[in-house]
Amino acid sequence: MKVLVVGSGGREHAIVTALAKSSRVDKIFCAPGNAGIAALAECVAIQAMDFKGLVDFAKKESIDFTIIGMDDPLVAGVVDEFEKEGLKVFGPRKNAAILEGSKAFSKDLMKKYNIPTAEYANFDNKDDALKYLETAKMPIVLKASGLALGKGVLICNTLEEAQEGVKVLMEDKKFGDAGNTIVIEEFMTGREVSVLSFVDGKTIKIMSSAQDHKRAKDGDKGLNTGGMGNFSPSPFYTDEVDEFCKKHIYQATVDAMAKEGRPFKGVIFFGLMLTEDGPKVLEYNARFGDPEAQVVLPRMKNDIIDVMEACVEGKLDEIDLQFEDNAAVCVVLASDGYPVAYEKGFEITGLEKFDGKDDYYCFHAGTKFDESGKIVTNGGRVLGVTATGSDLKDARAKAYQATEWVDFANKYMRHDIGKAIDEA
Fold it and tell me: Shortest CA distance to 210 belongs to which of 226, 197, 229, 194?
């Protein structure tokens, strides 16, 4: 098979790495890709939002299967464009990707179908939102309804903070049109857990659990980021939690989307909060999480093409989804100053130390080749250094050891990824 992956981050590098293991795949293309992906796939200079360019390329190269990694093109309808041309593509159609594209939609869906989530209200008018806050309990959470690179969530401890947050989202447009509508939500306490799943419109198969570290600095301090590290499985995702979620959240979400005339095919990411009242949905994503994909996919036993094809063809019930009885930890190496302001263009050294080491992965997120052919930094999150081990403590020790193999100016990371493992 000839396969095209659309995207340029660590998630897409993890997908390409899984594809490279498949006996069914002869040739991988990635649009636009990055310097790390280039070692496994032919990178083509087509941007993820250039739907015509992508479709034309897929037809010209006789691509057998296309995988959309990123949220923006999914929400904007790239799958619909591929399907119009009779091309096989993995990911939800536009009317299903709204599950991520509009937090207001997903909250209303959960309310309608009794899927456990936080109490909330949606607002597209700033004055109405401010009026609501006057009687709301603090702390409270404000969310831009649209896509905001995983950063459009504000946790406000006081009424003054919440009022300023509404201004930032709706008036200052910090996240652009994503803040045209906002969700004001009760503040939930508990442990966060991420659960990825494959879906074929009616059947859902759960992948291994994971746990993200969103804040920029150690001790969960600093600003929200796209994710500073991850581990899988989560020791807090117990059999009891799994049973509850299968009964009240996972299949219920798939059935709800089907009833709404929006059958979902692809990956649903469930962001869960394990509260005293049981698990509740924090958010949905309509694709692999990043860096969740970097700890979950290396542990998957199945051929990724078999599973993805089953999703597209509505045959997921025939797949026995299996994961290794091991663990994985990912530590993100970022550019100092991320997620606000940072310099890029610094040479990365030591990448060759990962070659030939089965338990270690270095997923590229923000990298490129400079004019002389050297790999340099090209983003806030630069690399996802990942290791698998017999258990979480083993994987964590190996991942942190491997962070010392690579270096670049302005290298920054958290030193407490997976520290929660010690408390489990």
Answer: 194
